[in-house]
Amino acid sequence: MSGIHLKVGCCGFPVSKTKYYKEFSLVEINSTFYEYPKPSLLSKWKKEAPQNFEFTIKAHQNISHVYRFDLTPECIKALDLMVDACRTLNSKILLIQTPGSFKPNQTNLKKAQEFFKEAKKHKLTLVWETRGPEWLTEEAKDNLKSFFEKFGVVHCTDPFVASPIFVGEVAYFRLHGLGKKLYYYQYSEEELRKLLDILKKFNGKREIYVLFNNLAMFTDALRFQTLVKTGNVPSLTGCFGLESFKKIFEKTKFPVSKTKLIKMYGWKLFDLKPGKQVTLNSILEKIPDKTYSNLDVLVKEAKKFLDELD
User: Fold this and answer.
1) Backbone angles phi, psi at 104, to 5 degrees
2) DSSP bridge partners of 269
3) Is the domain of 94 the same as that of 66?
4) CA–CA distance, 198 with 208 (Å, rounded to integer)
5) Domain hosting residue 48, numbered range
């Protein structure tokens, strides 16, 4: 319905693979960032997945964080192992994410140039996610544009934070959340609609990958995928106002303190009314600072502040 070809999925499996495969046709394997996968395990994943299911792979941290693109024998070995993993899963995309400490200076750019020159020999689509504000300056963008174009490397960003410097036949986006604490975030309907509008700017003869990497990634990716297909965003809870607030805490173990409630649930959303969600913090921060013995007591206090949000 949106008139745009998007591939939507999550960074890792946030639910069982069986449940995940029923909803999505794409996943980014990021356990490969921490440890080298056994070929037998990758073969098992490939066999279990639906026929047209697609895997992308996040490169091991030895490449980006330990050797930092320096083409040592160890770095080349790490690259070869990642290429082997891609071959086993029929993955055409290899993502490399550098740390915020990897700055856009001439030394690092030269190492990156040599690395990607070597990596391109493997005929994969290479995606580079840069981290840190230094990469977003106009000077850095100017220096990087020709680099990305020359080597055909796709620049990965969080679309809410920055526009990529270069996309080719593939555009690749990762969403980490917009909260004060990375990953602790849930996207509202308004934000998901804004996301779709942003991505439409990249529409054309290319595949657009959208990978959610926040704590609510499964729910948010599913809601966004529904928006793309139908034009509608499903309700988070199936109810609104106080009933929606109450539903979030149905499985909470009481008694529980206000401090713990904020820590565990404050970043999450509830449905205030159709089309509008607000964070639980908007209520939890206002209730008395005490321990709540049961859900009814919590709801009674929350009710006093609910009308202020409408």
Assistant:
1) -80, 55
2) 279
3) yes
4) 12
5) 6-230
Q: Strand, helix or coil at 247?
A: helix
- Residue type for position 81: L
CB 125 within 8 A of CB 88: no
| Strand-strand pairing, 276-279 and 269-273 | antiparallel
Q: Is residue 237 part of a domain?
A: no
Domain end (from 188, 207, 230): 230
DSSP calls for 92-119? -EEEEE--TTS---HHHHHHHHHHHHHH
Could you read off the pLDDT of 202-244 as tens digits, one per residue?
Answer: 988 899 999 999 999 999 999 999 999 999 999 999 999 999 9
In a domain, 1, yes or no: no
Indicate the SS3 state at residue 127.
strand
Residues 162 and 265 in one domain: no
pTM above 0.85, yes or no: yes
Q: Is residue 246 assigned to a domain?
A: yes
pLDDT per residue as tens digits for the range 232-282: 999 999 999 999 999 999 999 999 999 999 999 999 999 999 999 999 999
